[in-house]
Design brief:
This is DNA 3'-5' helicase II. It contains 30 helices and 19 strands. It is of the alpha/beta class. The structure holds adenosine-5'-triphosphate.
Length: 795
């Protein structure tokens, strides 16, 4: 058997060397349970990869006996590429220079690294259902986000028989109070999203659903829970009619089958399970992992960082990670004790940034209670070797001043001669070596361009300022606006309506299934498109003008008349053809990176319509059967265009996993998880104005900086957990809201490699303002730790 030192040598030769703590995790015995607590940039993926390769080459575990999961498709792809890249490298080196015994050589020669199973938990579950199905059965079809959202909207919220549950006053009140943030932006799309979150939690928290449904405390609440239950039932029925499962059902199905002794071929081979990003695991997933671990003698490695848990709103339960060691025994039922391993050498950031992040994590005394005990500080393995800039702060009196100065800073750094600090150091992207604006990112709690009152926020004002620079710098922020309110989206929607249903017949026929608001939105879109076609309307941020050929195209479509004489309009046309024909005339949707994302939403929603509607997104033109023709178009309105108009189909984070190099990306902090940039700008307080106009005790935007009330995820936890095996949380919901804000800024502050710039208005400056804000040094006891000793350099 190859020795561990022989393996390390091979790893070294391909340029990889675990540090001492990483080595503890890599070297641990095959069946040792491991609890790896890994701070930002400390080589989680690298360590997991090295451990898997050690299992194969040293312990001679069959690759197909190894299962590794991570949180996003992108992270899973990165893990796979490292396993294969490093794995083949090690294999080759061992065969050429490893001095292997005959037996070891036979093993190394035949082993196929490619058989290691890696993926997200969902992709693995899907794979299991596909690869290990009972003879004669088909695996279920996976309903993606767009399909699930559409079915919940059309059949859950509207109701298959036109119940219009979204208008039910009891349900409305119940949902709105669970949401807890008032009625701004409260429409059928946001209701559907919340109902889907509850559906997910029902599974994620392994709820006793019927007990929950019956547990309302007032007459109205009991009624509301009943309507909700019916909505979820209808949704489930629609999925099952189509032989579909959504993500929650997928995991539940696999868990049930595992518990019943299923997937035997797979579980007989399984030897080790490894899980990345375990801090964002939910109870359903924990149950799955424990169930899998039971099949391999408890050989479970989990890796994560409680400080970076951000997905409470999707049912993540950070305590499952923090308390892993005890849960492994008490819930998993294993006798072994997991070995804790702490990874704290941060390879990403400069010493100054690492120091700042360390202090930040320790700033709030209360927060320490929920951090993993014994967690060491991050340290810099290459301290002193690199250029180190101070943390920077840019705080201004007004939003306009801030945006102007920030745009000028960004211009200097990326297009000009650099930004010079008083000590002579210059901050500048390295354009000769491919550096560009994409080396910078602006992280905000929300990338929205306008606030609830309709006023411009930093992403909007900065965008305009950047375009006004000597060399204009475009931004990339596809989530800046409500999808349905974007000009090009409305125009494309309107053109589709003009082609599909110019006289509104199909809309009238579909009438009951469409809300009044939806029909009025359709009307606005169609008018916009018609005026634009005539040249009498401009569409915001659309430079293209309509030409006669497009006018022709739309007329022919609307009349279902081919433009070649003698030709016959086809009986069946797939709507995707229409979509791409129209897009041809709108370069904004293929040349512009934001436009490409918008087009992807249309394409995905059309894909969903194709899967869920009886007409498979076909437009039928049959003069002998006008009703059928109308119904086929009606289905496109219901399943393709209405979800867009109703705010239910939108840009989700998965649609934008690559960022253009020549634009400034504006990201939510959630989206930045797992990413790194040379220079990161964090908006810590551009939304918060201190004004004498505000009455004392006015807490504008408090939930984003110093919560006075719990947020939606905390409300949902309190509402649902009493009926979950997880039981009611002991920690106060406001404390949980604070904990989450500290985690959010911990993630933001740990993204940069070289430069961290905090920006905000003077009211948030620790010395100049009094606005309570956990991102600028305040703890929850209202003490400002940064006052008088500001940890950044003001520019
Ligand atoms: N032992 C090591 N020696 C040198 N460099 C290392 C070592 N371990 C990791 N690195 C480097 O550190 C960087 C971060 O590693 P990796 O991508 O594995 O981190 P991560 O912990 O998964 O990141 P995060 O969780 O913050 O997204 C990479 O550039 C990687 O090559």
């Amino acid at each position: 058997m190859l020795s561990f030192s022989g393996f390390l040598k091979a790893l070294n030769e391909v340029g990889r060397k675990p540090n001492p703590n990483q080595q503890l995790a890599v070297e641990a015995a095959k069946d040792a349970p491991l609890f790896v607590v890994a701070g930002p940039g400390t080589g989680k993926t690298a360590t997991l990869t090295m451990r898997m390769l050690k299992l194969v080459f040293v312990d001679q575990v069959e690759p197909k006996g190894i299962l590794a999961t991570t949180f996003t498709k992108k992270a899973a792809a990165e893990l796979r590429s490292r396993v294969l890249g490093w794995g083949y490298g090690v294999q080759e080196w061992l065969l050429e220079h490893g001095g292997l015994s005959r037996m070891d050589r036979m093993w190394v020669e035949r082993v196929d690294i490619n058989q290691i199973r890696t993926g997200t938990i969902d992709s693995i579950c899907e794979e299991l259902l596909r690869d290990f199905r009972d003879p004669g059965t088909d695996p279920p079809i996976l309903a993606d986000e767009f399909v699930a959202e559409t079915l919940m909207l059309r059949h859950g919220m509207f109701g298959a028989s036109g119940q219009r549950r979204y208008q039910d006053p009891d349900l409305d009140e119940f949902l709105c109070s669970a949401r807890g943030t008032g009625r701004y932006g409260w429409h059928v799309g946001s209701k559907t999203e919340l109902v889907r979150t509850m559906w997910d939690r029902r599974h994620h928290d392994q709820l006793d659903w019927m007990a929950w449904v019956k547990s309302g405390s007032t007459k109205e609440e009991v009624a509301a829970r009943k309507v909700l239950d019916e909505a979820l039932d209808d949704y489930a029925v629609e999925l099952s009619k189509r032989l579909m499962v959504d993500f929650s059902q997928l995991e539940q199905t696999v868990l049930d089958r595992l518990r019943a002794g299923g997937f035997k071929e797979f579980t007989d081979e399984l030897q080790v399970v490894l899980v990345d990003e375990y801090q964002d695991t939910n109870l359903l997933q924990e149950s799955l992992y424990f169930e899998l671990a039971k099949r391999c003698d408890g050989a479970l490695t989990v890796v994560g960082d409680d400080d970076q848990s951000l997905y409470r709103f999707r049912g993540a339960t950070v305590d499952l990670f923090s308390n892993f060691a005890s849960r492994y025994q008490s819930v998993g039922g294993f006798a072994k004790v997991p070995t804790p391993v702490f990874l704290n050498a941060n390879y990403r950031s400069t010493s100054t940034i690492i120091g700042f992040v360390n202090d930040y994590a320790r700033l709030d005394r209360e927060y320490q209670a929920v951090r993993v005990a014994g967690k060491p500080k991050l340290k810099n393995p290459k301290a002193g070797e690199e250029e180190d800039f101070p943390i920077l702060g840019m705080f201004r009196r007004t939003l306009d001043e801030l945006a102007e100065d920030l745009a000028s800073f960004i211009h200097k750094v990326t297009r000009g001669g650099g930004y010079k600090l008083p000590d002579g150091k210059v901050i500048q992207v390295d354009r000769k070596n491919g550096g560009d604006v994409g080396d910078l990112a602006l992280l905000c709690s929300s990338p929205r361009e306008v606030n609830a009152a309709g006023d411009s926020r930093l992403p909007m004002v900065l965008k305009d300022e950047l375009l006004a620079q000597k060399e204009p710098i475009p931004t990339f922020n596809p989530r800046g606006q409500d999808f349905a309110s974007i000009g090009i989206v409305q125009l494309l929607g309107g053109l589709l309506l003009c082609c599909l249903d110019r006289d509104g017949d199909a809309e009238d026929a579909a009438g009951k299934g469409l809300g009044r608001e939806t029909r009025s939105t359709f009307g606005q879109w169609a008018t916009l498109a018609e005026d634009w076609l005539k040249g009498t309307a401009v569409v915001p941020r659309v430079a293209t003008k309509a030409d006669t050929r497009l006018n022709h195209y739309v007329s022919h479509w609307a009349d279902r008349k081919p433009d070649k004489s003698g030709a016959k309009w086809p009986t069946y046309v797939s709507c995707i053809e229409l979509l791409y024909d129209l897009v041809h005339w709108l370069p904004e949707l293929h040349d512009d990176p934001e436009g490409q994302v918008y087009l992807e939403v249309f394409a995905r929603q059309l894909g969903a319509a194709e899967q869920v509607s009886g007409f498979k997104a076909q437009v039928i033109t049959n003069p002998a059967d006008a009703k059928l023709s109308k119904t086929s178009v009606g289905h496109l309105l219901l399943y393709f265009l209405a979800p867009i108009a109703e705010g239910s189909a939108k840009v989700d984070e998965e649609l934008m996993d690559a960022f253009p190099r020549d634009r400034l990306s504006i990201l939510s902090i959630h989206q930045s998880k797992g990413l790194e940039f040379p220079l990161v700008i964090v908006d810590v307080g551009s939304d918060f104005k201190a004004s004498s106009k505000f009455p004392k005790g006015h807490f504008a935007n408090a939930f984003k900086r110093f919560p006075r009330q719990p947020g939606t995820p905390h409300n949902l936890e309190d509402l649902m957990r009493p009926h979950s095996p997880l039981k009611t949380l002991k920690r106060d919901p406001i404390d949980r809201a604070f904990d989450d804000l500290f985690r959010q800024f911990f993630v933001a502050f740990s993204r940069p490699e070289e430069v961290l710039l905090l920006v905000g208005l003077d009211g948030s400056h620790p010395d100049r303002g009094t606005i309570r804000n956990v991102a600028t040094g305040w703890d929850r006891d209202e003490q400002n730790h940064w006052a008088g000793k500001v940890p950044f350099f003001d520019i």
